[in-house]
């Protein structure tokens, strides 16, 4: 297939690209800068100038594509509501351009806050509904296009998509630990974070693109839930720092913006994804990656 992809040069996207190439797919990648275009070209991706806030470039990408993989997102926590509006508008543009075609539209979503008091599954509906919801309620919006002739699929990623070179949540926690001189966790640290290795996440994207049905939800989750105190302890051992609890009332001051995520208890299953797509995670676990030095820098 000829795939139009946003976020192809990002952390997850740059792993999805070789995964799709190995399966014989061709990729056109949205490039928001000359640097991004050069990186895409070097990876064997045809660059298309534009951005997710540029509807014309999105429609141009869809026009001759056999499917769409939408991974880009404006990670602007200073204007998270604005980022959500941009995301919603992008999904509306992509969905409308694909309507009636039967072509796939995969969008990136998340598992954080999906279910309270239990292990979340693919059958749990997102709580983020409507334009004012996180990410603009884009998951529900995208899946609604299944009723308009689009093979819409939501790929929910674990909050930690880890590996060497990761600059996301765990890298942020490692940076805070170095700055503070202590690897911290919140409260008793029994709240759990799901995780997935980047290569395993890329494989889920390919399998979903090739075989998930319209309206499907898949979980890119390799480990159901790792206690945050264990994550902190692993960082402490690797960085040669003590490990300590931070009181919930002090979490925002100690951790900054990431406190709202690090304090979540979000155990998540991927059993149905494994059964339906034949996916078997093979990469190292999060604690193994920490021990191997993935977050030393």
From TrEMBL:
Record-given protein name: SDR family oxidoreductase
Domain of life assignment: Bacteria
Organism taxonomic ancestry: Bacteria, Bacillati, Actinomycetota, Actinomycetes, Propionibacteriales
Residue span, NAD-dependent epimerase/dehydratase domain: 3-211
Organism: Nocardioides humi
């Amino acid at each position: 297939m000829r795939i139009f992809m946003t976020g192809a040069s990002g952390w997850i996207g740059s792993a999805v690209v070789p995964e799709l190439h190995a399966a014989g797919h061709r990729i056109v990648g949205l490039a928001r800068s000359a640097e991004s275009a050069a990186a895409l070209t070097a990876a064997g991706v045809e660059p298309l100038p534009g951005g997710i806030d540029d509807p014309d470039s999105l429609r141009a990408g869809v026009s001759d594509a056999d499917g769409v993989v939408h991974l880009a997102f404006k990670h602007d926590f200073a204007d998270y509501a604005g980022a959500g509006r941009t995301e919603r508008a992008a999904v509306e543009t992509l969905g409308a351009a694909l309507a009636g075609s039967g072509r796939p539209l995969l969008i990136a979503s998340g598992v954080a806050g999906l279910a309270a008091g239990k292990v979340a599954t693919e059958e749990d509906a997102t709580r983020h509904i409507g334009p004012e919801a996180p990410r603009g309620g884009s998951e529900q919006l995208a899946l609604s296009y299944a009723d308009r002739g689009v093979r819409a699929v939501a790929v929910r990623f674990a909050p930690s998509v880890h590996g060497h070179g990761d600059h996301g949540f765990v890298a942020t926690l490692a940076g805070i630990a170095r700055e503070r001189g202590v690897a911290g966790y919140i409260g008793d640290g029994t709240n759990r974070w799901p995780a997935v290795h980047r290569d395993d996440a890329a494989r889920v994207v390919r399998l979903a693109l090739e075989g998930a049905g319209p309206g499907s939800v898949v979980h890119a989750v390799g480990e159901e839930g790792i206690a945050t105190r264990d994550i902190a302890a692993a960082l402490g051992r690797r960085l040669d720092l003590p490990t300590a609890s931070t009181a919930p009332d002090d979490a925002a001051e100690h951790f900054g913006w990431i406190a709202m995520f690090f304090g979540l208890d979000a155990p998540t299953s991927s059993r149905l994804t494994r059964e339906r797509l034949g996916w078997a995670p093979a990469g190292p676990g999060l604690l193994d990656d920490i021990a191997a030095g993935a977050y030393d820098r």
